[in-house]
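Whether sequence alone determines local backbone shape is best considered at the level of individual chains. When preparing material for the folding task, we compiled for one chain both its residues and its backbone structure tokens. The sequence in question and its structure tokens are set out directly beneath this paragraph.
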Amino acid sequence: MMHQSGLPPIRLSTEADIPDLYRVWRASVDATHDFISADDLDFYDGLFRSLYLAQVRPWLALAADGRPAGLMGLTGPKIDALFVDPAFHRQGIGRHLIAHALTLHRQLMVDVNEANSGAIAFYINQGFRTYGRSALDHCGKPYPLLHMARL
């Protein structure tokens, strides 16, 4: 089930994908967000499951076996979420999702946890630049965000 580019296909998720979306999100967060306290992780977990997945249909990058390897939520040109299953890190899934977003929007924006140096390096590599910073995250918690854009 590979694309002619050699990369997996991307499709919009459906309600049936919610368990896999959660699995990818949680595995990715567990692997990359060690700066978040256990209590706050439980808080975000609840938000992701009860609010985000109930309201948003992320794009999925599918692995060769058809299961989701990565997800990307978009609200217009704003990337709300981009998470890749750690089993697929450094295999081009994130780049492939960004390339897909660029087919939908010429310019992209994203907020990245300042403590997530791997994500910041990834976005810089994809042509994003920091244009601002917030001391608190979108929930008012003390996890500073960098506001980045690819123009």
Summary: Residues 7 and 92 are 8 Å apart (CA to CA). The longest strand covers residues 68-75.
